[in-house]
Design a protein that fits this description.
The complex is a heterodimer of chains A (259) and B (308). With 259 residues, chain A is an all-alpha fold. Chain A has one domain (2-256). Helices cover 81% and strands 0% of the residues of chain A. In chain A, helix 2 runs parallel beside helix 5 (97-129), helix 5 (97-129) packs antiparallel against helix 6 and helix 5 (97-129) packs antiparallel against helix 10. Chain A starts with a helix and ends with a helix. Chain B is of the alpha/beta class and 308 residues long. Chain B has 2 domains: 5-228, 3-Layer(aba) Sandwich (Rossmann fold); 233-291, 2-Layer Sandwich (Alpha-Beta Plaits), CATH 3.30.70. Chain B has 10 helices and 14 strands. In chain B, helix 3 (99-109) packs across helix 4 and helix 4 packs across helix 5. Chain B starts with a strand and ends in a 5-residue tail after the last helix. The chains are: A mainly alpha (259), B alpha/beta (308).
Chain lengths: 259, 308
């Protein structure tokens, strides 16, 4: 088992090391920390109701920056390997393209998850310092955000084999942010639609990856109780299925590509 | 196919899709074979199809038509790559990793046990002359140093076959000598080496056989000894004025440096014919000698344009 997984783990390790040494995560972490701490300062002035504001800013920063770092870092991986020809010596070794692709996926997903965890730790420390309580839903939010990183990384890595780097980053960011912000809008307008437009809206709703389902920030902000475990399990399954589909499509494409 | 055949390429055609629906035939019906223990130089001008052929052998490109095999296995298969060391044309590695980290990563991919990594990586670093620089990030390395890292990863695990694309590209004379020594050491142990190069002098120093490629086709394929014979020139230096009459067939004028003329022939009979004609015209034969000839001149003449 370990013998088979050593090669993708090595590719993942190289991917994470390269990203860390390029200082990719630091930029967003420092910027994010500054924004969260800035929001936290308002509480120090004793303004009423800013507990929710701090949580809101913290979660917005975490969501936006973790998606940005995941999309940008993932979109670069394979095109940069091909353009810089760094993949030739690697693929000259006895490693299958599937293992190489999996290693890249593992690397960017782990790096993105580490950024999410760092943001949550920062937010938790800040909330502790200001004496703002969080329930179990905070940790469920962390779990689902981490899960969404695997989901997003699989999609972006797959798209990087079909689109140029710039197009991939633009489309992926629009899709991620769009689903976060506008997915519910389809439900709101559903009753107003008829005929073809209704069918199109339904097809879009059922086929689109619902990233907004991985966002429990509003529940944390408003102090809701934890969501049932079966819902969490369902979300895990949903994320795994989507990530697996994206991974499979990308992998088939990569295996057939002329390099 | 012969059981000793290490590389077998049969009727290989590779077509690239170009812009506006056009296509480019980079390799056209290429057939060649490399036997076990041979050192074969794969030479030709830019765009001849050398790198494309090598990419097919490594499984980076797929044949449009024809077949390629390595050790009798499908070219590019994991099993074939397990026994092959490969150096790509432009050696680029992860810039933020050190040479030691890079080679340790390749050691894992090469299936070398983790307990041996340190020892093997240290040996390779020593062998390619990077001792003392192995803990620096590769972004600080010159092109020649990166090529040394590339060579180290290529020979890692003592592969049975080395496929090297432009192996001496960007190397200074000392590094070239080091590379040559490594290749000759491989050759002495009966390993097979297949390499492309623009450095024709390097080819003559290490190869058993040369395959000349142009426009995706094999133009000439000869053992180096045989090639050297055909490159050999017989030079005659005479004193006096060259007669206005035509020179015998197979004689070319190399230079005129009053009062001396230098003439070149390929065969002894042509040289003898020339000698008689010059003496009959009143010229004095000053000197005759053999010139081993230049591989570059030979290839330029064969291809009909400059080898770059």
């Amino acid at each position: 088992m370990w013998k088979n997984i050593r090669k993708p783990v090595t590719i993942a390790r190289v991917t994470v090391l390269e990203s860390i040494r390029r200082k990719d995560p630091y930029v967003v972490l420092i910027l994010g920390a500054a924004m969260v701490l800035g929001a936290g300062l308002f509480s120090r002035f004793g303004v009423e109701g800013l507990e929710k504001f701090v949580k809101d800013v913290g979660f917005t920063v975490t969501t936006v920056f973790s998606i940005v770092i995941c999309v940008v870092a993932t979109a670069r991986q394979l095109p940069a390997e091909i353009q810089n020809r760094t993949l030739y010596p690697s693929l000259g070794k006895p490693i299958s393209r599937t293992s190489f692709y999996f290693g890249k996926y593992l690397g960017v997903s782990l790096m993105s998850c580490a950024v999410v965890v760092a943001f949550f730790v920062l937010l938790r420390v800040l909330l502790l310092v200001f004496g703002i309580p969080v329930g179990g839903v905070f940790y469920q939010a962390l779990y689902l955000r981490v899960l969404s990183m695997w989901f997003i990384a699989a999609g972006v890595l797959c798209l990087s084999l079909f689109l140029t780097h710039a197009a991939n980053v633009t489309i992926s960011l629009l899709a991620c942010m769009g689903m976060q912000l506008f997915a519910h809008s389809i439900l709101y307008i559903h009753d107003e639609l008829t005929g073809v437009s209704l069918r199109l809206a339904e097809a879009l709703y059922w086929m689109a990856p619902h990233l907004e389902l991985f966002d429990l920030s509003k529940k944390v902000i408003h102090g809701w109780p934890p969501i049932p475990m079966w819902v969490l399990g369902g979300m895990t399954l949903y994320g795994i299925v989507y990530a697996a589909v994206f991974f499979a499509v990308g992998c088939v494409r990569f295996r057939r590509m002329a390099l | 196919m012969d059981t000793k055949s290490v590389i077998g390429i049969s009727d290989l055609t590779v077509v690239y899709k170009a812009a506006r629906g056009k296509s480019i035939e980079a390799v056209s019906g290429l057939t060649l074979e490399v036997e076990e223990g041979e050192v074969v130089g794969f030479v030709g001008p830019n765009g001849a199809g050398k790198t494309t052929t090598i990419k097919v052998l490594m499984g980076f490109l797929f044949p449009t038509k024809g077949k390629a095999s390595v050790f009798g296995l499908e070219a590019g298969s994991v099993e074939a790559r397990r026994r092959t060391g490969f150096l790509p044309e432009v050696a680029v590695y992860y810039p933020f990793l050190t040479a030691r980290e890079t080679l340790a990563s390749y050691a894992t991919l090469q299936e070398i046990p983790a307990s041996d990594h340190d020892r093997i990586v240290s040996q390779l670093i020593e062998k390619v002359g990077l001792a003392g620089r192995d803990r620096e990030p590769l972004r600080n390395f010159s092109k020649g140093m990166l090529q040394r890292v590339g060579l180290a990863q290529a020979i890692m695990g003592d592969p049975d076959l080395l496929i090297l694309d432009e192996v001496t590209s960007g190397l200074d004379p000392v590094a070239r000598r080091d590379v040559r020594e490594i290749l000759l050491e491989f050759k002495s142990r009966g390993k097979t080496v297949f390499f492309s190069s623009h450095e024709l002098s390097e080819v003559t120093l290490v190869c058993d056989r040369v395959i000349l490629l142009d426009e995706g086709k094999v133009l000439e394929e000869r053992a180096l000894d045989e090639l050297r014979k055909s490159m050999r020139k017989l030079v005659t230096v005479a004193k006096g004025t060259l007669p206005a009459s035509a020179l015998p067939d197979g004689v070319t004028l190399r230079s005129v440096n009053e009062p001396y003329v230098t003439l070149v022939t390929n065969t002894e009979s042509a040289q003898e014919e020339l000698r008689k004609q010059l003496q009959a015209s009143g010229l004095e034969i000053v000197e005759t000698f053999q010139d081993s000839g230049s591989l570059e001149d030979y290839f330029v003449n064969t291809i009909g344009h400059k080898v770059t």
